[in-house]
Design brief:
Mean pLDDT: 88
CATH class of the largest domain: Alpha Beta
Number of strands: 20
Radius of gyration: 28 Å
Distance between the termini: 61 Å
Number of helices: 29
Length: 720
């Protein structure tokens, strides 16, 4: 009797199993040094038996279209067919290792535990006969194995067990998914000799900065590095990677895009990008003929799948793509298992909320314990973070910018909008950057410049994805060009964008965010004239939403002493240390939020959260997609065609990303039914895409406009 694992096309169980085992053998060929002998044996067994439960009668009948009866997940049934006596010699009589294998197989799909009695009954009725046929002998179903499977009530999965389970289950998932999708489990790092990233960096810059030399020398260590904008952090991070498998994480999609394009242009063609809007990067860049379009779309999807499986030598991503494993949810084990043989770069740590900061720090602790390496490269780093990473033996160093006298500051105790006329005059001769803390304020300021005859651009999060990308590119080109004018933005321009302006007008924020903003001015230039080029306005904008009120007040007090002075690089670091001093900050709500989150994560049991819970908690907020009704009416035919194809269930990933072009990512801080300007029913069934009746303002020719305009009375201050 032939037993099948898949249909469309049909594939036998033995064929699929051999493919999974081959994927694991290929992985070991590249990464065997990272795994112990026991781990190798356990993963091999898990790969061999993970789908064996598919031989049950109901599953086989369903594949052939002759039954629609309910069935039990095949992973649950597979554990009934594992016999410890048959495997004990391979496992060196280690029953604990056997239990790890059972759990890895049982949970290799994201499903909750079921009642053991129900599984037993289903096994007797639908598995026993086929098992005898498959193994060609009388098989005794091992119901006792079910009692060795973890559940929340028993809670026997201690830390040691969980770490070892993660490796087995994570690598099993990785190889299984790759076999099913016919994609590579790992793409080799093939950059040698002159083509290596290290050599390309040296060739491009001729010599290494002290920061970069430090990173190169400590490439085998966990590292925490403080350096200001323009100090060569990105190249330093790549030198630390040393052409090994790595992940480069950033706080925002715009900064991830910038770093991705920079790496791809100068250092490595075989680099992936992962975030919620990344699908466009996998489009075929070549001009193709009409009959090649279908193949190009296929290749695009395949490349995206490879990226989602974390198989590229280097992946640039936002933190939500990998650090969700900190919640120990089902389906994230492959991420942490991949960290066993990877290096992780965390850029711009200062950009995160206390809760997200705690999540990252706990994630780094897990990466260290699993055997991976990490590097923190940031403009600011609170001392309490280093204390929490003490067990990771972090090599810490601080580097000042080569140009110490870039910025002279003036603190102005009023609202920025009162100085609009003055700013207009300055913009005739200089490139001006205005940074607000909220979208609402940025839009208000932007409107006040509409009579200005110079270039004026607005950049924030409430533009259609396709429009925002155009604006980002325009702002980068504008900052590097010869024309003068104004860019008004929120804090999305703080990190990793390659921009350089002449003067900054900004609302006061936290000191770490403020210093990041300063890094967008005179990026690599000396302020020889000692002319004021940083203007800080104390009027509150987004305080209590975007920024912690206590941190705001401490920051204002710390920065005030440098009013009307050149703000030296060493003084910036002192200022940050003053605000985030361990003794002082422990009295603030900011630290309490951080500590509470960190302790909560340390106490989280495996599988306590499901993946959706983890996503929501990780982001702190709930994100939905909005389609302005004016955009729907303008592109009605295109949008409705996508929606109809989605209903048919075709090419879901491709279609969702196509629909994203007409959407705005919008963060909700309250239930959807409390928003009067958003339809309460999703525009697309099964998705979180909603119509909004707010005005959308954007000129595609001039690349100017306000974006989504929300009534101030309805608007939340937290948005950027």
């Amino acid at each position: 009797m032939i037993f099948y694992a898949k249909s469309h096309p049909f594939m036998t169980l033995d064929e699929h199993t051999k493919m999974v085992e081959k994927k694991y053998d290929d992985l070991l060929e590249m990464k065997e040094l990272y795994f112990g002998s026991d781990e190798i044996k356990m993963i091999k067994i898990a790969c061999h038996y993970h789908d064996i439960g598919k031989i049950n009668k109901i599953f086989q009948e369903k594949l052939k279209g002759i039954s629609n009866k309910d069935q039990k997940p095949h992973g649950y049934l597979s554990v009934l067919l594992l016999n410890y006596k048959d495997l004990s010699e391979i496992l060196n009589e280690n029953k604990r290792n056997f239990e790890i294998i059972l759990n890895a197989i049982y949970f290799h799909h994201k499903r909750e535990n079921e009642n053991n009695d129900d599984i037993k009954e289903f096994g007797r009725n639908n598995l026993q006969e086929n098992a005898n046929s498959y193994f060609r002998k009388e098989v005794i179903l091992k119901f006792i194995n079910l009692h060795k499977v973890y559940n929340k009530e028993k809670g026997f999965m201690d830390n040691d067990f969980w770490y070892r389970y993660v490796i087995v289950k994570g690598i099993l998932n990785k190889c299984d998914w790759c076999a099913s999708a016919s994609i590579d489990e790992e793409i080799p790092v093939e950059v040698k000799g002159e083509e290596s990233i290290n050599n390309k960096i040296v060739e491009r810059f001729h010599s290494l900065k002290p920061l970069q030399q430090f990173m190169k020398e400590h490439r085998n260590d966990n590292v925490a590095l403080i350096a200001s904008t323009g100090g060569g952090k990105t190249e330093g991070a790549l030198l630390w990677l040393n052409d090994e498998k790595g992940f480069f994480t950033l706080p925002m999609k715009v900064s991830a895009n910038s770093i991705f394009e920079r790496i791809k242009e100068f250092y490595l063609s075989n680099v992936a990008i992962l975030h919620s809007d990344c699908f466009r990067f996998y489009e075929d860049e070549k001009n193709i003929y009409l009959d090649e379009i279908e193949q190009a779309e296929h290749d695009k999807l395949i490349n995206y799948q490879i990226a989602k499986n974390l198989s590229y030598p280097l992946t640039v991503c936002t933190i939500d793509q990998i650090f969700k494993f900190a919640y120990k949810t089902l389906g994230t084990e492959h991420i942490l298992a991949t960290m066993r043989y990877s290096k992780v770069i965390v850029d711009e740590l200062q950009s995160y909320s206390p809760e997200l900061l705690a999540t990252i720090i706990y994630g780094l602790q897990l990466i260290h314990k699993i055997g991976g390496k990490f590097a923190i490269i940031t403009a600011t780093l609170p001392k309490f973070v280093l204390e929490d990473l003490k067990e990771c033996h972090v090599q810490f160093q601080s580097f000042q910018h080569d140009i110490p006298d870039r910025h002279k500051i003036e603190i102005i105790d009023k609202d920025l909008k009162e100085d609009v006329e003055r700013i207009k005059e300055v913009s005739k001769h200089k490139k001006v950057l205005i940074i607000c803390n909220t979208v609402a304020k940025a839009q208000e300021i932007y409107q006040m410049f509409q009579d200005n005859k110079t270039n004026v651009y607005l950049l924030h999060s409430r533009f259609l994805k396709k429009d925002r990308e155009l604006i980002e590119r325009k702002v980068i080109n504008f900052s590097n060009g010869n024309e003068n004018g104004i860019c008004i933005s929120t804090q999305i321009v703080e990190a990793s964008l390659d921009i350089d302006f002449d003067v900054l007008y900004t609302y006061m924020s936290s000191v770490d965010s403020l210093i990041q903003r300063m890094g967008r001015i005179y990026r690599n230039r000396r302020n020889d004239s000692h002319e004021t080029n940083i203007y800080i306005y104390t009027k509150r904008d987004g305080i209590g939403g975007v920024y912690d009120p206590e941190i705001f007040e401490e920051s204002l007090q710390a920065i005030w002493k440098y009013n009307h002075q050149i703000f030296l690089e060493e003084e910036k670091l002192k200022c940050i240390d003053e605000v985030y001093d361990i003794k002082g900050i422990k009295e603030l709500n900011y630290y309490n939020r951080y500590r509470k989150k960190l302790e909560n994560l340390k106490g989280t049991r495996p599988m306590e959260y499901d993946s959706k819970d983890a996503d929501d908690k990780f982001r702190d907020i709930h994100s939905v997609k909005l389609i302005p009704d004016i955009i729907l009416n303008k592109h009605l035919d295109e949008i409705m065609q996508i929606v109809e194809e989605l209903k048919e269930g075709k090419n879901k990933n491709k279609l969702v990303f196509a629909l994203d072009e007409y959407c705005i990512n919008y963060n909700l801080y309250k239930p959807i039914y409390k928003y009067e300007y958003i339809d309460h029913q999703s525009f697309v069934e099964g998705a979180q895409i909603y119509l909004t009746h707010c005005l959308y303002d954007f000129d595609e020719f001039l690349l100017q406009g306000q974006g989504l305009i929300i009534d101030k009375k309805q608007d939340d201050e937290q948005f950027v």
